[in-house]
Write a structure and sequence with these properties.
Elements (H helix, E strand, L loop, with lengths): L9 E4 L7 H10 L9 E5 L1 H10 L6 E3 L6 H4 L4 E5 L16 H17 L4 E4 L4 H4 L9 H9 L6 E6 L2 E5 L6 H7 L2 H17 L7 E5 L14 H15 L3 E6 L7 H4 L4 E4 L2 H12 L4 E5 L5 E4 L16 H19 L8
Parallel strand pairs: 1-2, 1-5, 2-4, 3-4, 5-12, 7-10, 8-9, 8-10
Antiparallel strand pairs: 6-7, 6-11, 11-12
Helix pairs in contact: 8-9
């Protein structure tokens, strides 16, 4: 696994140029001192970023760099931007297929640096997947693409985190009908184990506690309201208990996320996308962070989309990006400083 060095910075990818990624990155840099942000660089067009900062009257000076190692020295006084060429104009709120190649190239470049240890981690700005399909991007999202770039055998797991809650959905970008069909015992087991290791190794929780959400109302009511609990979720929990995990469930989802329930676990394994994301975004929409577990490098992202409807208005909130930057830095530093235990589950 790449090691964090004293000169390592995080790399922030451009995301969808017509969205709010550049704006929140500039705002995050402007808040670097009060938010205690780690050094980071942005992969984007420096002239575009400088023009956006001036047009929006954002207090940011932009400096072009040629290597990621230059970022730390530049960061205290200017936003370091490593150039990437955009092949078409950018109009806020209106994605342009001509810029799609640059969006993917920025991700590829960041992964290359992360795998070689030249940066401490990656923070990805939101992408507009429909635009990327024009250049052959054939993935449900960042998570799956990053796993593919990481090499064979990488099985990524999505974790969403805010100060009040951590959740891991077993199925992610599927219709509800397809998600239910895709839930199986091995997927529940794998997601729980990857989450357990991340809590121990990346979050410093010595004895992680895991809750598993039921799929059906009342946890299936003994099979009367659905068989998935008896046939899939309970057998998965039994396997995990046999491997020594502190795990409870299946817990009906309608009683899993109130304050006293949340105090009993460190992560909730949920069965589908909205079961995980609705409670997290309700509790703390502004500070939600998307973390990809199981990669050979650190990757986080703001837990929101491209927000095309407010792009160019100067009203985008950088709180989620700031949280993603600080979380990526904390995980990277822990991986570098702590000798990880060899015990596996």
């Amino acid at each position: 696994m790449p090691q964090l060095t004293a000169s390592s910075a995080l790399a922030v990818t451009m995301g969808e140029p017509a969205g709010i990624g550049a704006e929140i990155t500039i705002k995050a840099w402007a808040m670097r001192n009060e938010a205690r942000l780690p050094p980071f660089l942005l992969i984007d067009d420096p002239e575009r970023i400088d023009a956006l900062a001036q047009h929006s009257k954002l207090a940011a000076r932009v400096v072009r760099i040629s290597e990621p190692e230059e970022a730390e020295a530049v960061f205290p006084s200017a936003l370091p931007v490593l150039p990437i060429t955009l092949d078409g104009p950018v109009v806020p709120g209106h994605p342009n297929k001509a810029t799609a190649r640059a969006v993917v190239d920025a991700i590829d470049l960041a992964v290359e640096w992360a795998l070689s240890g030249r940066i401490s981690g990656i923070v990805t700005n939101p992408i507009q997947k429909q635009v990327l399909y024009a250049v052959g991007f054939d993935y449900p999202g960042h998570t799956e693409y990053l796993a593919d770039l990481s090499g064979e055998g990488v099985a990524p797991v999505m974790m969403l985190a805010c100060p009040e809650l951590r959740v891991v959905p077993v199925t992610v970008h599927l219709s509800l009908r397809d998600a239910i069909a895709a839930i199986d015992r091995d997927a529940v087991v794998r997601n729980a184990i990857v989450a357990w290791r991340a809590l121990r190794d990346d979050f410093g929780i010595a004895a992680p506690r895991i809750a598993v959400a039921a799929l059906n109302p009342h946890a299936g009511e003994g099979g009367a309201l659905g068989a998935e609990e008896n046939d899939i979720i309970v057998p998965a929990i039994e396997i995990l208990r046999d491997r020594g995990l502190d795990i409870m469930g299946p817990v009906p989802a309608d009683v899993l996320f109130h304050a006293s329930a949340r105090s009993t676990y460190d992560v909730a394994i949920c069965m589908y996308h909205d079961q995980a994301l609705i409670p997290l975004k309700t509790l703390n929409f502004e500070q939600g962070v998307n973390i990809t577990l199981g990669l050979p490098f650190v990757r986080t992202s703001p837990d929101h989309g491209t927000a095309l409807n407010i792009a160019g208005t100067g009203t985008a909130n950088p709180a989620s990006l700031i949280a993603a930057l600080n979380m990526a830095d904390a995980i990277a530093r822990r991986r570098a400083a702590v000798a990880l235990p060899t015990t596996q589950v």
